[in-house]
Amino acid sequence: MTLLKNRRPLGPRSGFTLLEVLLVLAILGVIAAIAVPRILSTKDDADIDATKLEIRNYLTTLQRFGIKHDLPQSKGQNEIIDKLMNPGVDKNGKQIKRLIDKAPRDAWGEVLFYEYPDSKDPQADKPRVWSSGPNKQDEDGAGDDVTLDNLQDANL
Questions:
Q1: What span, in angstroms and rounded, lies between the C-alpha atoms of 128 and 109?
Q2: Global pTM?
């Protein structure tokens, strides 16, 4: 008899049924399937914009260096970065102030590429700078490489 006295009386239930929980999980899954690709696409666009801004800043630094010194004619990364980090001494033997403290990198952590004179546009009077892009493979400014390829990009 004591077992029957300790049981709860049947009345309004509390909690969720398994069906209700599964329905909520399905709805959350649909919302995630819609939202995640949009968020990832926005991040890719932001990385590209940040890289274009870094390229623009690097070109400005190169222009500042080129006002007083000749830009080295090379293709790659290391020679110009070394010149900007360790510019040496001027005509009077005074140490030239460094223009950068570290190598300029894109949003994916890769060092930017430099070419002067520009082999793609021999008439250009400025160096060409590009990023290897999201795939981190240098395609000489093609493929998914990030460049400042128009006036709108140059005026970020």
A1: 19
A2: 0.69
Q: Is the pLDDT of residue 15 over 50?
A: yes
Q: Could you give the CA distance from residue 129 to residue 121 in angstroms, rounded to a whole number? A: 12
Cα–Cα distance between 25 and 5 in angstroms, integer? 38
Give the domains, in start order, of the chain with CATH numbers: 50-154 (3.30.700.10)
Taking CA 149 as the corner, what is the angle to CA 107 and CA 74, rounded to the nearest 5 degrees? 75
Q: Going by C-beta distance under 8 Å and a sequence separation of 6 or more, which residues neighbour residue 11?
A: none
| pLDDT tens-place string over residues 19-37 | 999 999 999 999 988 888 8
Contact 133, 144 (CB under 8 A): yes
Q: CA 44, 47, 53: angle at the middle one, nearest 5?
A: 145
